[in-house]
Amino acid sequence: MSQVAENTGVRRTGSAGDGLRLVSLTKEFANFTAVKSIDLHVPTGSFFALLGPSGCGKTTTLRMVAGLETPTSGQILLGDKDITFEKPYRRPVNTVFQNYALFPHLDIYENVAFGLRRRKAGNVDSEVKEMLELVELTSQARKKPAQLSGGQQQRVALARALINQPEVLLLDEPLGALDLKLRRAMQIEIKRIQTEVGLTFVHVTHDQEEAMTMADTIAVMNQGVIEQMGAPADLYENPKTTFVANFLGQSNLIEGTVKGRDGDFVKVDMHGTLASIPLSRSHTTDGGSDGLGWVGIRPEKVLIADVGEDIDAPGNSIPGGIVTDVSFVGVSTQYLVRMPWGQEMQVFEQNTGRRRIFNTGESVDLSWRPEYAFLLDHSQDADAGVDVVAAP
């Protein structure tokens, strides 16, 4: 444990026991259901993200945990304590909002000290100084919020919440008001602070990169339900639904006829090419009622080559592609390639300087390694999550 965590009394473990649990949690409004019987477990000391587009129910879920919304049904448990209907001020949670909600007439020191003074706590000075050290704002202690940058104000808001020693810190789109460069810097900063103090953070965001950069576990929400939950790499590499495949990054989804199992793989006839997908990444093995499935592959996993050129992949080469668009974006070149069946495939190739850049109109072959592909149920919409407006 760091000296800061020890001196401020911020706990790495607490009475939360096995963490925060939501059990069949539901919130109904007059004309719609915002949250539909969700279950999740946030282990003590973890950084957990609720990720989804506007209107998916993530903020409503956070507000129920904070006590700002009353659930229609279900339970909210913190350790062995049921806090479902506990008053907000009696819950061992604090919330950091997008607008920071700092007191403009108080300096930074007094903003951070506010909760301690309200409780008439002892050792105010030492605890505030240690907390300002944690968020690296010691030199700004006597400035007013208006004199600080957005990132500095966000760190003040974090310090003010953390000094109250919550068992769970709730972050509601905390970086939404910052510009891109500062937002990325603050992602790393908040993760550092969470690691330093070891408390449970629950972070609501619509930003996929933000969730993947900061969180240990992500729950992807869509229309009031959790589509998939897991570690960032697991969700990205092995999505189980078309929504997750499209919302968390980008995916090529290609219709194919499922031929069945062959050892540790599922075989799919993909417009004349027999593709192999590992069983562990196949979320339908028989194609359902229509015998079809969606073969998924991320754009950066697709290899592109001149016609007839050997491709460094053990998978099948798919001929007949025509480059329809080329975008140079610095670290990579992004291609659109129209395939013989009419679909445009996305291909992202890293600019290492070892290979030439293809031009629009050129004929190319594509391929990928079988272990990178995944197979999804054909009953799902292939465009789910593609056109979702990811706004707070």
List the topology elements.
Elements: H1 3-8, E1 20-28, E2 33-42, E3 47-51, H2 58-66, E4 73-78, E5 81-82, E6 93-97, H3 108-118, H4 124-134, H5 150-162, E7 168-172, H6 180-197, E8 200-205, H7 208-214, E9 217-222, E10 225-230, H8 232-237, H9 242-247, E11 252-262, E12 265-270, E13 273-278, E14 292-297, E15 303-306, E16 318-328, E17 332-338, E18 344-350, E19 363-367, E20 374-377
Parallel strand pairs: 3-8, 3-9, 6-7, 7-8
Antiparallel strand pairs: 1-2, 1-4, 4-5, 9-10, 11-12, 11-14, 12-13, 14-20, 15-19, 16-17, 16-19, 17-18
Helix pairs in contact: 3-4, 3-5, 4-5
Written overview of the protein:
With 392 residues, this protein is of the alpha+beta class. Helices cover 22% and strands 32% of the residues. It is globular. Strand 4 and strand 5 (81-82) form a beta hairpin. The longest helix is centred in the middle third of the chain and has 18 residues, at 180-197. Mean pLDDT is 90; it is low at 1-15. It has helices at 3-8, 58-66, 108-118, 124-134, 150-162, 180-197, 208-214, 232-237, 242-247; strands at 20-28, 33-42, 47-51, 73-78, 81-82, 93-97, 168-172, 200-205, 217-222, 225-230, 252-262, 265-270, 273-278, 292-297, 303-306, 318-328, 332-338, 344-350, 363-367, 374-377.
